[in-house]
Design goal:
mainly alpha, 2 domains, 3 strands, 60% helix
Length: 208
């Protein structure tokens, strides 16, 4: 009998996907951990501030890189706030896309449990990291066109809505904003990724 790890009441004789969350069904008795446990600690034990050290390091490196690039612009007489925002967004998109691509299948499966479109069409989970990578590379090339920023704004807002709905309903789900490679608690961090990038894209639209 195949069951959903997140919703054990969902059972069927053959493989498939849970109609509630989209997770792949597994053979009864083979599930390794309840999704809530996986979401909370990913096998790392009790969550403390140290659980977030990998994420803090990532944000720290992105910030340092952004400051370094902006200082170079300043000393060259070409400093602009829009460029600084663009540097940070480019690095953010590329780094987060990179972690997702380390385990594309795992990310797609996790993303399908909460993203509104991926729940209906799992293929979107395989496309999404490449969208982020494209956003990052275009911004790294200095392209800050209104068309690109509007697309980024729409994509990130749409992605964040699915997360916000899950959190508001207090439903269990596996956040996949950093893929499956970094095993840190990421539930509300996904809101920062989605709405934070949407906010920065909106800010650039105002400033440009």
């Amino acid at each position: 009998m195949y069951i959903c790890p997140m919703h054990p009441e969902i059972q069927q004789e053959g493989p498939g996907r849970c109609p509630k969350c989209g997770m792949a069904l597994v053979l009864e008795g083979t599930e390794k951990a309840k999704p809530k446990q996986m979401m909370e600690d990913r096998g790392l034990g009790p969550i403390t501030w140290k659980s977030y050290i990998p994420l803090i390091v990532i944000f720290g490196l992105l910030t340092i890189s952004t400051v370094a690039a902006s200082l170079a612009d300043y000393f060259n007489g070409t400093f602009a706030l829009t460029s600084t925002i663009g540097y940070f967004m480019a690095g953010f998109f590329i780094v987060f896309a990179g972690f997702k691509l380390l385990d594309l299948k795992g990310f797609a499966e996790g993303y399908s449990t909460y993203d509104l479109l991926a729940q209906k069409w799992m293929g979107y989970g395989y496309i999404y990291p490449f969208l982020e990578l494209g956003f990052g590379l275009l911004m790294l090339a200095g392209i800050h066109s209104p068309a690109l920023l509007w697309v980024e704004l729409a994509v990130m807002l749409f992605s964040g809505i699915g997360v916000a709905i899950k959190i508001a309903r207090k439903e269990e789900f596996l956040c996949a904003c950093l893929g499956t490679f970094l095993k840190v608690p990421l539930t509300k961090i996904t809101l920062i990724e989605d709405f934070g990038m949407a906010a920065l894209a909106g800010l650039l639209l105002i400033l440009l």
